[in-house]
Amino acid sequence: MTEPIKIVARGDIEPVADVSGRPVPRGWTDWLVLFLRVMSVVIMLKGLYHWAVVCGFMGPHDGFLDMSTSAQSATVFFAIIDLVAAVGLWLAAPWGAVVWLTSSVSMVVIDVFFPQVYGEAILVVVVELLLILAYLFLAIMAAREHPP
Q1: What is the Cα–Cα distance from 32 to 117, expressed in whole angstroms?
Q2: What is the rounded CA–CA span in Å between residue 96 and residue 83?
Q3: Quick one: 19 exposed, middle or buried, by C-beta within 10 A (0-12, 13-18, 19+)?
Q4: 18, 102, 122, 130: most buried by Cβ count inside 10 Å?
């Protein structure tokens, strides 16, 4: 026999949100999500910059069509992958970080091993590597918060 449905009066429900006014402690997971959201905005702006180069609004004075084939290919690659990564990072989806890491490592490889594409950009390499290390640190610390 089934049990009857219990009707709960309004005063019997515990509050869902903390309304006590006390500061809520932030864990590593919260810092990781904040980092992913900030990186999402940065990567989206980077992807839009590459699209602006493709469309001719920004970039070299000669225009996109006068760029070398390798520079055109890299620009189109980053225009697409950066926007895909931005969506994944904003959603804090696991695939977003993978796509972003692919984009970052690709940018480092292009700048280090193929300087003829975008020129030697040591600052870009250093920033990309620091961001990757920051992500790995936050991801490891967040994983330690939630043991299996």
Answers
A1: 33
A2: 10
A3: exposed
A4: 102
Pairwise pLDDT comparison (127 vs 2), residue with the higher score? 127
Number of folded domains in the chain? Answer: 1
Q: Is residue 2 part of a domain?
A: no
| Beta carbons within 8 Å of 80's beta carbon, 6+ residues apart | 47
Instruction: Tell me the CB-side half-sphere exposure of residue 50, using CA atoms within 13 A.
Output: 21
Which residue matches tokens 């904040």?
A: 34
Whether 129 maps to a domain, the answer reads: yes
Q: How far is CA 112 from CA 118, 123, 135, in A?
A: 10, 11, 21
Does residue 1 sit within a domain?
no
Write the pLDDT tens digit of every residue in 31-69: 999 999 999 999 999 999 999 999 988 877 778 888 889
Integer CA distances (angstroms), 131 to 42, 44, 84, 98, in order = 11, 15, 18, 14
Q: Residue 71 sits in which domain range?
A: 27-145
Better pLDDT: 14 or 29: 29
